[in-house]
């Protein structure tokens, strides 16, 4: 919940302008639910050193572990401010609400009271966009957007430990993060189910610079947004 609230405040910056723009402009706020995909990296990772290695090699005796594809559930929060009939600005944040397993650091060692230790990841994509609205009527609006932003990939070390004093305990602690510049493009059809409430199926492409943790620099995303429009003559 704390992640959702923080990202909502970041993406709702256009609402600050609402008192000034309400009479002649439209403000959209919404939450989104969808998924994002990217292929697995071509090189593996040595679990002892966390350095890249060739699949099938055994640089330090623990093998070369493959890395996973990105294929996860994502949530989003966003806001648009349509300053003119066809043009506006907006911001979006899309994030994994749950961590996903990225790399097995060590197998379970029950004789030492240790479960498997795993490196988990969580990806956040945020962008600031210009918006072009080529078509709009009372029931539907087509929106095309493009802009720049960033990608934040955070890693967490997770596992279990067992002792005679505390029993089995699960732990998850921050390990490291990697930040990347990204360019974003998206298109969506905003369909009004009431005068102000809408749903918007949207397709996005995020080109993430130097995104070596996965196989491609491009992250594909499909999201269904549920939102509300203030003003704009709806």
Please give a structural write-up:
This protein is mainly β. It has one domain: Porin (Beta Barrel). It is 6% helix and 61% strand. The protein has helices at 2-11, 18-21, and strands spanning 26-38, 44-45, 52-53, 70-82, 87-95, 100-106, 117-136, 140-163, 167-192, 197-208, 218-231. The chain has an 8-stranded antiparallel barrel. Strands 2-3 form a two-stranded antiparallel sheet. A hairpin with a 4-residue loop joins strand 4 (70-82) and strand 5. The radius of gyration is 22 Å and the shape is elongated. It starts with a helix and ends with a strand.
- What is the count of structural domains? 1
DSSP strand (E) fraction?
Answer: over 45%
How confident is the prediction overall: mean pLDDT?
Answer: 86
Going by CATH, the architecture would be Beta Barrel
- Based on Cα principal axes, name the global outline: elongated
Individual helix count: 2
Q: CATH topology, anyone?
A: Porin
**SSE string, helices as H and strands as E:** HHEEEEEEEEEEE
Identify the strand order in the major beta sheet.
1-4-5-7-8-9-10-11
Short description:
The chain has 2 helices and 11 strands, in the order ααβββββββββββ. By secondary structure, it is mainly β.
